[in-house]
Amino acid sequence: MKKKKELNFEKIFKGKKIPILTLDERWHELFPDYDKPAHIKEIEAKLNELIKQQGKLASDMKDMKALKNKLMQEIITHMDVNDSKIGKIKAKTLDRNQRYIKELSEKMNRTEDELIELPYQIKAINEQLIVESAKVCYERLNSNNKKVAEIALWVSKIRNELKEKILEKQDMEMKNTAIYSYMHDMLGPELLQGLDEELKNSL
Q1: Does 142 lie in the same domain as 45?
Q2: pTM (two decimals)
Q3: Which superkingdom does the taxonomy of this entry point to (predicted)?
């Protein structure tokens, strides 16, 4: 018997445009929580964590940009420093804001690097999830097809047995009709009716 060729799911899905599975209702229909294998749950959790991280970093970046703009505006406002008391306060504020902006810029650069890298990580984990999901789905399909074939065989067998039983029933009914007819002709209707009643009472 020819060995069935195994599908290379990694090769099939590599580099293909695939929707984010954990955000797709159709995927959740295929894998409800009560029928989700442990290894699928594990990959799903990793993917959800990356998506959550991406959302948080994007929100943080937005807040940092707003804060940086505010600090820059304050620097412009406090540019006219001098030796007066107000001038010294402005100089102090200017120095503090410049330090904050430097720290903020470094943090924004790190966040931007993470935001650039995250889509690739999400894509890789999402590909891993579609590969494992497809494997599970095809295992289920093969298992179901095997059961369908077994049930079809059982139905065919039962259908043949049913046909035989129907023919046997019809044959018995014809024999009973013939027996009753011969007895009717031989004994007469009155005597046969009496026998019928005795038979019913004895049952």
Answers
A1: yes
A2: 0.69
A3: Bacteria
pLDDT digits (tens, 9 = 90+) for 75-132: 777 666 555 666 566 667 777 778 888 899 999 999 999 999 999 999 999 999 999 9
Helices (H), the chain: 9-13, 25-30, 38-77, 85-187, 189-202
Per DSSP, the residues of 123-142 read HHHHHHHHHHHHHHHHHHHH
* Distance, CA of 72 to CA of 60 (rounded, Å): 18
Q: Choose the final residue of a domain: 131, 154, 177.
A: 154
Statement to judge: residues 100 and 179 lie in one domain: no
138 within a domain of the structure (yes/no): yes
Other C-beta atoms closer than 10 Å to the C-beta of 47 total: 21
User: Which residues form the domain of 175?
Assistant: 163-202
Domain count, the chain: 2
* CA-derived radius of gyration, the chain: 42
Q: pLDDT (tens digit, 9 = 90+) per residue, 156-194? A: 999 999 999 999 999 999 998 888 787 777 777 777 777
Nearby residues of 160 by Cβ (< 8 Å), 6 or more positions away: none
How far is Cα 23 from Cα 12, in angstroms, rounded to an integer? 22
In a domain, 89, yes or no: yes
